[in-house]
């Protein structure tokens, strides 16, 4: 199996476990069962699952009913362990983050030539990695695989756009046969371009993981307005905040919620108008104070969801 050389944005649950008192103080919330929350917008976090018995227990103890998973190396044995751990801890894994192999550069100068399936370099290996991820989802009961697919060209006649559509169609069909959805994470393309790509690929199982901050940090859209374009395809949302870019070479800066440009009350209100029943996953790429921030943000989002 291919082992991914990942962007180091997935926080490790081990960082939370290492802070005394954090897990134990939230243990009582873990008794909440998914069936009791089935009609609500569910909150989650991103977690590694290379050691699911330990890592998913921490997610449960923090009081989150859902999670998005990141796994280095897929295997049938690990799929069984992940499935068993999800069941044991009453967790719903909403998607498998699946990217790589190779280098990803998260900026405007090297990003277009390194991220996703748009650049030709590493494309065959990344297609294979996605298929392995789809197989792992099927084996472990995860309903979707999701990734950054690259700086999709806005010009529908651009050769890289045409190659991207041609590359994605068989992947979409492969996932469809397995009963697995594919989520495009927003960021590198405008909502209109992503809408076009989804419709041009046209396999019927393509949806959006709507990263609110990425749209701001890449300068592609106001995230509230972007929902008016792509909202019907949104199955999941990353709760993350940021500022618009002012350096043409670098992304805008991530900032803690609600210190940036993302209007979460407005976005959650609009999602409810769309009858959104998906999940909101807290993502935090800043290194410091992960656990404290995640738990604080959890309470902030719960208040908005329950008050609208």
Features:
single chain; 308 residues; alpha/beta; TIM Barrel; 8-stranded parallel barrel; two-stranded antiparallel sheet; 12 helices; 10 strands; globular
Quick summary:
The protein has 308 residues and is an alpha/beta fold. The protein is 41% helix and 15% strand.
What is the typical, i.e. mean, pLDDT? Answer: 90
Question: How many separate helices?
Answer: 12
Radius of gyration: 18 Å
Lateral arrangement of strands in the main beta sheet: 1-2-3-4-5-6-7-10
Order of helices and strands: HHEHEHEHHEHEHEHHEEEHEH
The count of DSSP E runs of length 2 or more, i.e. the number of strands, is 10
Helix content percent band: 40-55%
Oligomer: single chain
Q: What structural category do the secondary elements indicate?
A: alpha/beta
The CATH topology label is: TIM Barrel
Q: What is the name of the CATH class?
A: Alpha Beta
Distance between the termini: 45 Å
Question: Please, what is the CATH homologous superfamily?
Answer: Divalent-metal-dependent TIM barrel enzymes
